[in-house]
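Thread: Newbie trying to understand structure tokens

Hi all, I'm a second-year student working on a class project, and my supervisor (Dr. K.) asked me to get a predicted structure for one chain before our next meeting. I've only ever worked with sequences, so writing a 3D structure as a token string is new to me. If someone could post the tokens and maybe explain what I'm looking at, I'd be very grateful. Here's the chain:
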Amino acid sequence: MTIYALSTGPGVSGVAIIRISGKETKKAINLLTGKPLPTARVASLRKINYINTSELIDEGIILWFPGPESYTGEDMAELHVHASKAVLESILSSLSKIENCRLAEPGEFTRIAFENGKINLIKAESIIDLISAETEIQRKQAIKIMSGISSNKFNGMREKLLKILANLEAKIDFPDEDLPKDILKNIKKISEEIIHDIKKILDDQRVGERIREGFKIAIVGPTNAGKSSLLNYLSKRDVAIVSEVSGTTRDVIEAHLNIDGFPVILSDTAGIRESKNEIEKKGIKLALNRAEEADLKLIVLEAKNIDFKGVLKDLMDDDAILVINKSDLLGPNQFLNLKEFEHVLVSIKENINLKNLILKIKSKLKNKFISSGDILITRERHRQNLKECLVHLKNFNKKNSEGDFDKAAEDIRLATRNLGKIVGEVDVEEILGSIFNDFCIGK
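---
Reply by user tm_fold:
Sure, no problem. This is what the structure looks like when written as tokens:
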């Protein structure tokens, strides 16, 4: 089946790209232009007509990519046309009338590329990460993963395990033949090296996931301390309702920010206090849960009413900044004795010392995003497969007798399979749908 779709975003713009891939691509170009195919990978200006008529739709650039030297590995073409709604609807409608042509599903072009061996699963994921990147650090991570740094590492470990498996299966198939002692010694050495490598990769503080998904910051504190005002200030827009009425915020309100290139998910939460209202109690529970899950907590208190005890004091740790708001209400001779806690004295209303608070937040972000080695894990599925691989390798290392060779081979086989799942070298049908459904139509 030949697929087609608009590959550029909707909306008014100068140029739009329609992508076609499959066996009927040649036919589609011929019917739309009334001319033979242009030279491969050379931009050609063509008139684009309604199919089977000479009525002109638009004039645009045609790019022809014969398979297998194309993004999808199939015959493929791109139509660069004017991006009016009328032009696009006319071309897409014409393509729909061609036999064995249909509109592409989300991510289908990239899925075909994966199935045709043009890219592996990690590269497919990095493509959607690059499309979705909102900050410079996200872009850099996606580009680095696309370059093959993760794939090469995981494939390298997998190839070593396959060699171990070949030696074990040789011993199983020819039990009377003795394997050289140095081979058996090397098998254990290689497996121990891979165990060490996987442990090192897993000990990454989840930096890759943090960069891809965003650094989670929760604003917590009692009612009327200025939490919603702080959210609005950092977001540079009115995200949350600000009111002197206590308990205005009941649910968690989120804003996605770019702070110095770092992706951030900032959450405003319900004010923490004793309450008999069932809805407010649920909001307070959500607030405490969000604080526990956050990478950084901003604990906001009023300067004239520092109620810093109980649950709020328990939340104060290395991943928290104490924000004392409404400092403008303090008298000239009043001071706060909070030397034991890292804190910033601010006034959101009067815009006092907020730049210092932002600098502290940036400092925390940088420390969280610093990694001592290459970032290889960007998704939870990578992490889970590595953990399972580690379990099988540890089981393998416990087997020492020749009578255990069958079971030892199975341990290595399962470990190899887990590494293969990460890059898509084995059947991973159960996860393909979830991965490619995250793509936009046309990619």
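A couple of things are worth pointing out once you decode it. Residues 19 and 303 are 60 Å apart (CA to CA). The chain has a mean pLDDT of 85. Feel free to ask follow-ups in this thread.
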